[in-house]
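thought: fold this chain, then report.
action: predict
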Amino acid sequence: MGRWLAWLGSMFAALLLPAAATAQDAPLLPHPILSGADMRDSLDLSGPWTWSVDPYRDGLGGFHGEPAGEGHRRWDERDPEEVARQNPFALFEYDMRRSPTVTLPSSWIAHDPAMRYYDKLVWYQRAFTVQRRPGGRAFLRFGAVDYVAYVYLNGRFVGRHEGGSTPFAFEVTDVLRDGENRITVGADAERSAQTVPPTVTDWETYGGITRAVLLIQTPRTYVDDAWLRLTRDGRIAATLRLDGPEAAGRPVRVEIPALRLTMTGITGADGSWTATIPAPRGLRRWSPESPTLYEVRFVAGEDALPDRVGLRTIEVRGEDIILNGRSIFLRGICLHEEELGTNPSRIITPANARALLSEARDELHANFVRLAHYPHSEVMTRMADELGLLVWSEIPVYWRVDFARPETLVLARRMLAENIARDRNRASIILWSVGNETPQGEARLAFLRALVRDVRALDDSRLVTAALLARREGNVQTIDDPLAADLDVMAVNTYNGWYGGDRLADVPTIAWRSDRHKPLIFSEFGAEALAGFHDPSASPRKFSEEYQAEFYRATLAMADRIPFLRGTAPWILKDFRSPRRQNPLFQQGWNRKGLIDETGRRKLAFSVLADYYRRRAAAAQGGSAR
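observation:
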C-alpha cells in the first residue's frame, strides 16, 4: 500500500508483535491487562457513535503511500464544517461529526443492508465528557474490535490491536483532558492468509466495535492482574501483579468476606505476589449443581478491584474428567456468539446471554457449553459462572492457518494470552482449546505445541484440549494425531451421516480407537434442518427435521459404545449466519445445524438430545457419571 503505509504497518506491528518472539519465549501477556475491567468503576462509552465506511483505507494513507491528507483523516480533531466555513478552498471528503449515527457495541452488519458482506475499514467516532482523576492514570479498554483496530483520542494515535475477539487497552493518561474528548476508532475486518483466523471460515465476519469500550481511571499504581483459584491439593491461591511507580515492595491483600478470609503480603521487585493458604472448611465449591460465587476484593494502596469468583478443581485421572474430586460427563452444546433474532449483530447483553445459556441448561439439561470458535464476550463467561455451566474456550486457530509463518504464531500466542488473562477468574471455564480441525503436519504440530506450552505456563489450574481430526479406515475411526500426547483431553468433530457416504443406519456401528488412554469429547456433531421443513417418509431427505433427529439418534447410539467418551457438544444450539452456506431453499446464508432456529423455534432433534441428557443427568445423580 505504499511506503508510508508499509512503514506505518511495521511501526504498529512492533508495538504488539515482537518480531523476535518464538515458541520458547515467555507467554505474550498483554500490557496493560486491566484484569476484571468490567467490574471496575468506569465511563461506559456504549451508545451513539457516528460511522463512515472507508473501503480503500483512505483515512490511513494517500494514493501514493503518503500520509493521509487533511481532507481524509477521519481522526483529525478539527471540525470539517467549521474549517470549510472559514476557508472556502478547504476540501473534506468525510465529516465524522455529521455522519450517520448507530448504537454501539454492535457489528456493522446491522447498520445498513448494504453492509451485509462488507469486510473492509469502517471509522467510528463519538465525543464524551470527563474529569481526570488527580494524580491518576487513564486507560481506554476495548472488549473487542473486529478485526484490526486503530485508536485515536483527541486527534492523537494511541494504539493498534489485531484480533477480533480478545480485549485490549491503551493508556491515555497524557492524552485525556478535562471536559470534552473525542475518540475515533478504525475497525478493519479484512482477513488474509496470515491472520488468525484466515479468510476461509464457516461463520459470519462480524466487523466493528462488538463489545463495550470503557474509560477506566486508576491510581498511579494499580492492580493490573489479579487471579484467585483453588489448587488441586485444596488450597486457595492468589496472584496479584501491580503496575506503576510504586509496584515493588507494596502491601497487598485479598479479601473474601463471606469466608472471613484475608490474605496479605508484599509484592516483589517486579510488582507481583503469589501466596496460598488452606481452604476454610466452610468453602462451598463451585459446580453446575451449586454455582457458588464469592465477592472478592484485591487491594493495593488506593486501588481496590472487586470481582465475583467461584472456586473449584478440575483435573484428569486416566480416562476420566474429575470436577471437585468426582468423575463428570459433559452434557454439552456448541454456541456461536450470536444473539437470538432474525437480524443478529453480535450484541451480547446479559439478557441475550441468559436467553442462550438458559436454553442450554434448563431445556437441554446441559452442564457444559463449547463457546466456538473464538473467545466469546466476558458477558457470556460471567453468565456461565452465574448459571453453573462448564465452558470450553478457544482461539480461532482454524482450518487454513499459516502454521509455518512465525508472525502468525506470535499473533496466536498473544491472542491466547489475552483470552486467558481476561478469564482466569471464571470458574466455569475448565478447558482452553488451542485449535479446531487443523490438518496434520510438522509446522502445525510445532505451532500448536507452542500454544499448549503457553496455556500451561499461564494457567496450571485448567485442562488443555483441541478439536482433532481422526483417521477413518473401514468402520473404525482412529485418533492418532500426535498432538493428542500433549493434551489433557482429546476432542474430535464427527459428522458421519451428514458429510461422507455413511447411511444413518450404519453410524451406530462405527468404532472409535485411541491408544492414548485419555478422556475424549465429541466436540461437534450435527446435521442441518430447516425449521418447519418435514419429510416423514421412511428415508427422510437431508435438511428435514426428521433427518436431523434421526442423525442425532444414530450418533448418540455410536457415542454410547465408546468407553473413554466423557462428553459431547453437538453442533450447534442455534442456527447461525454463514456466508459460505448458500442453498437457496434451505440456507440462504445461514448454517442450519442448530437445534433451534434463529428465532428460538425448536426442531425435532432438540427433544432427542434433551431426553438423552436427561437420562445422563439422572444416571449421574444415581452415582454413575457414565
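thought: worth noting. The domain at 3-218 is CATH 2.60.120.260 (Jelly Rolls).
final: C-alpha cells above.
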